[in-house]
Write a sequence for this structure.
């Protein structure tokens, strides 16, 4: 099946699995540990039933909204995902081009396989992801490069003091091929992710060398003092952390368990969302990441308190099936599903979707959950 023939994101995923090398598929799809959180993200979303409204004149629903102060064509941004040239030679540049055409933001990953300056040539609305590095000077350098390239926000991922133990990668002794590397790092540093060792993940080895597990609240002050860009924290689940972040001047939070790739057994992001939203009120924007696979999922997130969502793995499926065109198909399918879900839920726009009621689905009630 081609990307163009797929009718939903599940069909896209099945088609992508048929063309992606097995070890790369495991790198993309795998979670940490027993992959409990990976599965729980999906189960938690499926447990939520929307309660639609009627007699609302939904002849022309609109999915547009503001994300971090700029208009987006739908309440979706593309999540940061490392080493996208594993899926297609154009990698992050192809995804950014598709995001530009779809009218949504693209988050340039710090572990991008294409440099931010080249990604910026797409003309897309770019956010830039940071991990906290042991080399503070390197962190400052990347921040300056992102700003100079025109990135409009900084997304600090805060749930990776170390990379989660991803058993699929360990079993595969996963390492990057020589033609794919961390474009923002010097070759002598990036090569660590390409050194294959039996029973080990070279990608995890590289991050353990580069990432600083001592990241703490005072470091936010250092970062805040070096940029006027909106600051987003990605990887927040506890409302206590959310409240402290909002009090520290953070502009937005991404409620996320890293797609089930960090602490196995962590709370599903959609379940953490209401308490985080309540803790911060309107002091900062709240987005949801982890497990989004349909337009209905987007409405579930919005009804539960999110301004919008970050879309991850389905983007990589589209990328593998056809570069920018394949990603464009992914985003077009999601947009069609959002428009359909808005109309069928009786919502003329995303703002009205925020007022929808949610209930436990009948299937979940039968199972006593």
């Amino acid at each position: 099946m081609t990307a163009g023939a797929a009718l939903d994101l599940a069909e896209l995923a099945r088609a992508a699995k048929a063309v992606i090398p097995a070890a790369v598929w495991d790198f993309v799809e795998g979670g940490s540990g027993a992959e409990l959180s990976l599965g729980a993200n999906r189960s938690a979303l499926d447990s939520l039933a929307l309660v639609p409204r009627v007699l609302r004149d939904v002849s022309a629903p609109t999915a547009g909204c503001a994300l971090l102060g700029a208009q987006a064509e739908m309440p979706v941004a593309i999540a940061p995902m490392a080493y996208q040239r594993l899926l297609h030679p154009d990698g992050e540049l192809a995804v950014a081009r598709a995001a530009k055409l779809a009218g949504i933001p693209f988050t340039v990953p710090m572990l991008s396989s294409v440099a931010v300056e080249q990604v910026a040539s797409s003309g897309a609305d770019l956010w830039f992801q940071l991990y906290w590095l042991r080399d503070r000077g390197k962190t400052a350098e990347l921040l300056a490069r992102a700003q100079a390239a025109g990135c409009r926000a900084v997304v600090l991922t805060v749930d990776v003091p170390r990379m989660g133990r991803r058993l699929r990668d360990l079993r595969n002794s996963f390492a990057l091929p020589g033609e794919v590397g961390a474009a923002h790092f010097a070759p002598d540093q990036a090569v660590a992710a390409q050194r294959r060792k039996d029973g080990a993940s070279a990608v995890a080895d590289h991050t353990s060398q580069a990432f600083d597990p001592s990241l703490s609240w005072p470091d936010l002050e250092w970062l805040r003092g070096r940029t006027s860009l909106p600051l987003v924290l990605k990887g927040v689940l506890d409302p206590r952390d959310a409240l402290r972040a909002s009090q520290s001047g953070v502009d937005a939070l991404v409620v996320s368990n890293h797609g089930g790739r960090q602490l196995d057994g962590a709370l599903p992001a959609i379940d953490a969302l209401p308490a985080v939203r309540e803790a911060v009120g309107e002091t900062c924007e709240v987005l949801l990441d982890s497990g989004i696979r349909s337009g209905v999922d987007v409405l579930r997130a919005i009804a539960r308190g999110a301004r919008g969502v970050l879309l991850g793995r389905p983007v990589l499926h589209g990328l593998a099936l056809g570069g920018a065109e394949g990603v464009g198909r992914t985003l077009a399918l999601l947009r069609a599903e959002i428009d359909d879900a808005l109309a069928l839920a009786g919502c003329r726009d995303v703002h009205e979707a925020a007022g929808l009621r949610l209930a436990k689905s009948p299937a979940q009630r039968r199972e006593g959950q």
